[in-house]
Design goal:
Length: 329
Amino acid sequence: MRESLQRVCNQFVENRDAVKKTFKLESSYIYPVCANIFCSKGMVISRERLEEARSILRGKTGLFSNFRGTVQAPVVCMLAADSDMESRMERTMTYYSLLKEKFWGSEYLALVAFLMSDLVTEARAAEKIARGRTIYERMKKEHPLLTSSEDSLFAVLMAFSDQSDDKLIEDMETCYRLLKRRFSDSNAVQSASHVLALTDGTAEEKVARMLAMYDGIVAAGGKYSKHYALSTLAAMVCLDAAPETLVEEMLEADRFLAEQTGYRGVLGMDRRTRMMHAAMLVSDLYLPRGQVDTAAVTGTISMIAAQQAAMCAVIAGSAAASTSASSSN
């Protein structure tokens, strides 16, 4: 394993453990997603910093706020990674109010607000939100049964694309049709097609590159999910490396994770989830460090979208588990 990948893997374990000790009652699936927020920035976080960020969040939001549910841990982690937490949280709350003028309030919208506070100035926020709403309506027209509140996140991210709305929708739909030939989970395919639409190249080229990685993992004896993790693999299409190189690095990261607490034995995470986490770590190697300004959005937005897709999957899964538990009582 090359030194840079080993470093990211070590950071991942440290960050996951710090998040787990701070948020003791969260789903075990949310800790790796949160840990990767810091790995993508080349950071190792402390519990003290996380506690400070959580205190700021709680000071700005009410007990029943959409920032205080399943999304609380990811938002706290994104806040802790910012150099000016107070200012970032204030901007986020302003953007959330603007978003609620066009979308229903939700935990997904809370994530959108936090992302927008780092992507665009307040002066241009209304323009991006309005475009995002237009794109969301077109998504819903194409897939009325599949499109839900979590897709508002992708719609707003697409509003930062240089592509026209027509081109985005056309690309998205072509990717969706091509991926459906291989994968049956319509919701997962839709999320992956959203991510691919934000990546340069033809739909055919992008899907072929994504499938080359998927098939490479399987051919090497690895396992990769055909469900929510597809969006993480879709995001890797934009990385500046050959599919076979990325597969080799994913397999190396997967072998490292297989030896770590939380992944070992029958009580550890399954192999498909582990490989998705390996894919996230490899992606971190190719991400630009520091803040994402509007000039750099085109090259990095698909990776941001994939990170959020992973969070959306955790939120949805946690909500379903909570509903199931409530109905059984």
